[in-house]
Amino acid sequence: MQGNFRNVAEMKPGEVGVISGFVDQHIGVKLMEMGCLPGSTIRFNFKAPLGDPICVSVLGYDLSIRVEEAAAISIIS
Amino acid sequence: MSSRKRLKIALVGNPNSGKSSLFNCLTGLHQKVGNFPGVTVEKRLGFCTLPDGRTAEIVDLPGVYSIYPRSLDERIVSQVLLDHRSPGTPDIVVVVADATNLKRSLLLMTQVIDLGLPTILVLNMMDLAARAGISIDIGKLSSKLGVKVVPVNARRGTGIEELKALFTQQIHAHESPIFPIREEVMAPVKELRDTLGVDNDYEAYLFLDQPDSLAFLSQADRDTVASIRSHHNFFPGKFQGAETIQRFGYIQNLLNEITLKPADDAWKSQSRAIDRILTHKIWGYIIFFSILALIFQSIFAWATVPMDFIDELFASFSASLQQVLPEGPVSNLITQGIIPGIGGIVIFVPQIAILFGLISILEETGYMSRVVFLMDKIMRKFGLNGKSVVPLISGVACAIPAIMSTRTINNWKERMITIFVTPLMSCSARLPVFTILIALIVPDERFFGLNLQGIALMGLYLLGFSMAILSAWVMKKIIRVRERSYLIMELPTYRLPRWKNVGLTMIEKTRSFVFEAGKIILAISIVLWVLSSYGPGDRLTRAHEYVAQETSGTLTEEEMEDRVAAYKLENSYAGVIGKAIEPVIRPLGYDWKIGIALITSFAAREVFVGTMATIYAIGSAADEGSATIRSRMQAEINPETGGPRFTPAVGFSLLIFYTFAMQCMSTLAVVYRETGGWKWPLLQLLYMSGLAYISSLIVYQLLS
Fold this sequence. Notes:
By secondary structure, chain A is of the alpha+beta class.
């Protein structure tokens, strides 16, 4: 069961996934307003030099989120 | 509605949607900065003449992604859009959408439409959308949404006339909502509409959902809203997620119908390639620090030429006026008080303009958000937030707008720490003090191709920055608050700066500095002139006699005049005050003349240079007043040693003092406003003054 659910923080640079939901609703609402909607694709672009935050692409634009927030986004991959 | 009524237009839109470019296009130089009633967020207001001759008043609201605010500056948008009953209520709301990212932009659009205000949709960045291969059926978008849609390229200014023409037409509010409010909340919404007479359902719903956005209501009305909320067990935020999903569902259907050709991601490849270098492990930081070094070098290298010119211009102007005007207190006030005072303001202009210009270029290109990205983890270690970098960097220009810009930081503790340490960043007002003291004590020589004076200047900035970071770390350990901190931020596509925006920022900031800070500096210059020209008793009016008595006529006429001038200053009110504090500042290496400058620069540190100019202009009346401030300070003799007054030890001690001391009334006032009390500004004042005193004491004692 657990193996099927991953989050964005566990993705590798260049990997693409589909958002399935949010572990944390508080952060989830803010992410949804920026276009991170369940069902849409999210691409992990690269990490900041110190590993945090990370840069992802959603809706065709680049977004910077912290690893902590990335961990709140569940994906189907 | 009378046709001569001034039209009020509000611009809203996502951050980076080109909203400010559009604002600049519409208003040009007819801008001013004000405050929203009751709140301290800077209000950018501009005026624009419409084709029918009417004037439109345009307000540029902070960038938001939705009507639900997540930080203090975003709250202003819901406050303006929810208030339908005040003279400030906009007649037209213009939603600025980034045409390359229509889906995200339309969320806010559907919310504004549902608030029932007359709305126009502007599709900005049509040039980029074309480059991305996007093709939209604009006519269909307009008829489906039920609002007028104008394609615009604010960079080029295309579409602006069409938009202005639209402002002259009667714009109607949307009749039926895009998102009908949920059945569950119908009862409290209806009760609220009946009791308070709120215009529409969505507005009433947001009254219930955003208790903190209702500052425009009276206390009684807010209590009514609160009692309806609790009576119906309404929990703010409960349905926000569901609403967002439902709206995006509507938007997706709309986009499916109107999109002729979707975006082709390849146009971003250039921007991504730049990102690989600018956010690189090593290159990223090297480039960031090189840019900072370049900024300081350029301020020093480029600004000194016009500054020296301004300095000499005012000195010679003052000298020639002295010869034309008849002798008397009024002409002395003009030549020794007012003109050096105005000179002390104008001399800042080149440095402030360059600094604001460079900061604005960093923001325009999209680089500033990469700085946040690079620095977030480091800043968090010190109790700050990646977003603290922006206030800290703008603090180099001026702490006041920098402290106001901390409103984008949504975590209370991180915001307080940022506010507390920002004044330690060396602001442009310290620059003239640094410039003049460095020029006195650091030789104008080159070291590995870099100007030594430039290196000294950068060292002072780094010192201020290090102290800010260190203080932040200490505060992180002291303040114990657990609150979630997050950073969700767009990294916009790199673009060339819009030079018009850069130019307007430079003009706007310089103008407000000259008039706002200028008033204080000029007033203090005049007060200072009075204090140093008059004194208790008859010592000043009969100075000549007293000096003659003391020296019993052994001096030449020239020596005599110098002694009289010095005697006058020493016995003036300013001299008395300076002497009173001399025991306190003597361990730092300062005499009573510098003491006068310390007292006057308590209100605003930039007054230091003007004070020096005034004090030494009075002190050496014999030299025709044509010398520059620097040469006068250089010539000043320490009577105890017979050597120059401004030795390296005194100079460095003063430099350190000015780096750390809180000498700015306006900063204290803005901290008071931003934190809502005297606790923080007073702590800041005590901390920074103590730090300045102890550090300069150590420096002077080590060097002398």
